[in-house]
Amino acid sequence: MLGFVISPTLDSLFLLQYIGILLLAIHLPFIFGIIGGTNLSVFFNILDKKMPNPKSRRFSQDIITQITIHPIIGILLGILPIVVLTLIFFQFLYGVPNKVIQIWLWAAILVQAISIGFIYGYQKVWKYRSQHFLLQLGLGGAGLLCLAIGYFLFLANKNWLLYPEYWFIEVIPISLCFSSNLIPSFLGFISLALVATGAWIFIRFRHGCFDMENPQEKSYVQFCHQIGTITVSIGVIIQPIAGLLDVILLPKVAMSWAVIACYMANVVAAMCICLTLVRQFDKIACYKWITMFVLLQIGIYIGYDHLTRTNALQEQLAVLDRVAKQNMPQFNKPKGSINFISEGKEVYEIHCMACHSIDGQKGLGPSFKGSYGSKRIVASKGLEHEADMDEAYLHNSIINPSQDIVRGFPNVMPALNLTEHEVDVVCTFIQSLR
Ligand code: HEC
Question: Which of 184, 277, 325, 385 has the smallest number of Cβ neighbours within 10 A?
Answer without folding.
Answer: 385
